[in-house]
Amino acid sequence: MLYLPFIFWITLELFVGLQCQTFPDKVNKCHYGDGKCLAESANALIRNYPKGIPEINLKPFDVVTVKDWVLVNDSRVGGAWYYFQLFNQVNLGFENTTITEIKGFDRDPTKSKIEIHGKIPRLVYKGKYHAKGRMLWFVDINSKGDSSSDFLNFRFDLTLKVRTEYRNNKRYMKIYEVVPNLRLDRWIMWMDDFFPDNFDMTIAINNLFNRNWVEFWNELEPRILLLFETVFLSLFEDLFYNIPYDDLFLADSEFN
């Protein structure tokens, strides 16, 4: 299922290299608030290091693991209810991300809004699902299987809310909220064995979803965005806990 952990992670993990004596040859360090430089450096990392850089603890981003997530959990009362869980998930296609704009990351990161904007031509989800409930003219559902999603022309805007804290005379940036906004041109989904004993009904339910994907997206978007936020926070809390904010940028006297 949709998840964007990687997007925010790609843009910022480039700073991990600053812990080392040398920065990757194909990526420039930047001055505070230099959005053009930051976007160019992020794109250089995405283009040149899709498998990550173990020497600087930059993880691969061509395959991104997604946490298990309950997407729908209706109250089990009345004539119709639904439960839908996604698990053993990965996302593919983040290596084709283009960062279009970065704002903020000033000397004092709390004084301006931090934003990251980007796009991916095709983001692919693969994983497992578990569905149960009562739907479709009171048909009982209890199915498990493989699922996949294609998100076409996927665009994202991330807003970071941060504060600073001091440890060992060093200043660190702590992210306490990530607010994602997402747009896409098409969502194509397939769920194997939705009706295990009736392949024609499985095809029908998948076709129903894909014909009405906009309505499904609008209905599920709050839970999808909440998943993004929790994953972003879990990914970056450790990164910024260990790396002083001022070590992420060039000094005023330095040039990239």
From TrEMBL:
Q: Which GO terms describe its cellular component?
A: extracellular space
Q: Which UniProt keywords apply?
A: Biological rhythms, Signal
Q: Which residues form the signal peptide?
A: 1-20
Q: Which GO terms describe its biological process?
A: circadian rhythm
What the record says about family reads: Belongs to the TO family.
Q: Name one Pfam family in it.
A: JHBP
Keyword check for Glycosyltransferase: no
Protein's recorded name: Circadian clock-controlled protein
For the keyword Zinc, the answer is: no
